């Protein structure tokens, strides 16, 4: 089991939140609200927030903007991970990944099994790293977002978490060593 290393300083990351939905607006986006609240409570900064329809190219375009932005270190994507004809988040984002994080989807489904049983098979939660930006995609419900953040993501975006975390992959070493951007 991992632990927090008390001699390593916390390193706040700039995290963007992207909601994929044909029916929600930013005003009714409770899943995006859940992620924004949790990332800020953990001490991170909201870099940006957007909502796009379930369209491969619009989703890929918004994610690409953030992947290309050196100020965005992580992207949390909610929605579009199911099996309906309009659920295209994995198809949109996996081609952008330099490396896939297979363990995230496996872990999310294992934890979700405790909460929703075999329905977790219908979650296509995926993650990857693209241009030093870590991307986590999760289902579009607030409960699924809470599960993903609380039980899979939060520790991996904390430089103090040992034995390993993603902070050193998304922030240049000189910045993690001194705890601030130059």
UniProtKB/TrEMBL annotation:
Q: Which SMART domains match?
A: MoCF_biosynth
Q: Which InterPro entries match?
A: MoaB, MoaB/Mog-like_dom_sf, MoaB/Mog_dom, MoaB_proteobac
Q: Which SUPFAM superfamilies does UniProt cross-reference here? A: Molybdenum cofactor biosynthesis proteins
UniProt key word Repeat: no
Which pathway or pathways does this protein act in? Cofactor biosynthesis; molybdopterin biosynthesis
Q: What keywords are annotated for this sequence in UniProt?
A: Molybdenum cofactor biosynthesis
Xref: CDD domains: MogA_MoaB (cd00886)
Query: Which part of the chain is the MoaB/Mog domain?
Result: 16-160
Assigned protein family: Belongs to the MoaB/Mog family.
The role this protein plays is: May be involved in the biosynthesis of molybdopterin.
**Name listed for the protein in its UniProt record:** Molybdenum cofactor biosynthesis protein B
Q: Which organism is it from?
A: Marinobacterium aestuariivivens
Query: What's the gene?
Result: moaB
């Amino acid at each position: 089991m991992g632990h927090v290393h008390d001699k390593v300083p916390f390193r706040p990351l700039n995290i963007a939140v992207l909601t994929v939905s044909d029916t929600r607006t930013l005003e009714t986006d409770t899943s995006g609200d859940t992620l924004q609240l949790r990332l800020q409570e953990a001490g991170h900064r909201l870099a940006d927030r957007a909502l796009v329809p379930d369209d491969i190219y619009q989703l890929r375009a918004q994610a690409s903007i953030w992947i290309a932005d050196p100020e965005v270190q992580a992207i949390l994507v909610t929605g579009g991970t199911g099996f309906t004809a309009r659920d295209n988040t994995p198809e949109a984002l996996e081609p952008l990944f330099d490396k896939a994080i297979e363990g995230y989807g496996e872990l999310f489904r294992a934890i979700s099994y405790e909460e929703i049983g075999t329905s977790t098979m219908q979650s296509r939660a995926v993650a990857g790293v693209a241009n030093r930006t870590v991307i986590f995609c999760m289902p579009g419900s607030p409960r699924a977002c809470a599960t993903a953040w609380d039980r899979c993501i939060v520790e991996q975006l904390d430089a103090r978490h040992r034995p390993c975390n993603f902070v050193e992959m998304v922030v240049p070493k000189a910045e993690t060593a001194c705890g601030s951007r130059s």
